[in-house]
Structure formats: C-alpha cells, structure tokens
C-alpha cells in the first residue's frame, strides 16, 4: 500500500513536471508568435508609411510644378503689360518729339 502511494506520488510528480514543461513550451510558442506578428505589423506599417511618403512627394512635386506654371504665366502677363506700356510711352514720346520738330 505504501509502495502504491509512493508510486502514485511519483506519477503525480511526473505529470506535474510534464504539465509545467508543456506550459513552458506553449508559453514560448505564444511569445514567439507574438514577436513574429509584431514584426509583420511593424514591416507593414513601414511599408505603408513609405508609400504615404512617396505619394506625398509626388503630390508636392506636382503642386510645385503647377505653382511654377501659374507664377510663370503671371510673370509673363505682367512682363507683357509692362512692355506694352513702355511701347505706348515710347510712341507717345516719339509723337511729342515729332510735334516739337515739326512744330
């Protein structure tokens, strides 16, 4: 009977050790899976961020090019207006000189 109790205790200890080892194994698997998932999420976030940054760069470049076109057109309009005004004043000055000479 005592031998039987000792044998049951040994079996219980072995089962307890096996249970602890299995729990440690599952714990390690869970931690490993969590790190793996975390790495996947981090990589996806980096990829998404790089995509957003690239899209922002493309948009910024397009906006800048559009702004340059607008500014260039405005400059050309102002430049042409100034040239036209200068030409009118030059013609008026020529008319005044001709009138003074002719008299």
How would you describe what is shown here?
By secondary structure, the chain is mostly helical. Helix content is 98%, strand content 0%. It has one helix spanning 2-102. The chain is rod-shaped and about 150 Å long. The chain starts with a helix and ends with a helix. 0% of the residues are buried.
Features:
mainly alpha; 103 residues
Strand and helix order: H
The share of residues in helices is: over 70%
Give me the secondary-structure category.
Answer: mainly alpha
Strand tally is: 0
**End-to-end C-alpha gap:** 149 Å
Mean pLDDT: 93
C-alpha Rg (nearest Å):
44 Å
Into which percentage range does the β-strand content fall? under 5%
Let me know the largest β-sheet.
none
The number of helical segments is 1
Quick summary:
This protein has 103 residues and is mainly α. The protein is built from one helix and no strands.
């Amino acid at each position: 009977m005592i031998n039987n109790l000792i044998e049951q205790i040994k079996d219980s200890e072995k089962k307890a050790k096996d249970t602890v080892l299995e729990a440690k194994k599952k714990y390690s698997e869970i931690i490993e899976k969590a790190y793996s998932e975390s790495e996947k999420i981090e990589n996806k976030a980096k990829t998404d961020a790089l995509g957003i940054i690239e899209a922002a760069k493309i948009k910024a470049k397009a906006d800048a090019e559009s702004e340059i076109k607008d500014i260039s057109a405005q400059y050309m309009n102002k430049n042409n207006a100034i040239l036209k005004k200068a030409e009118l004043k030059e013609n008026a000055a020529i008319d005044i000189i001709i009138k003074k000479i002719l008299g």
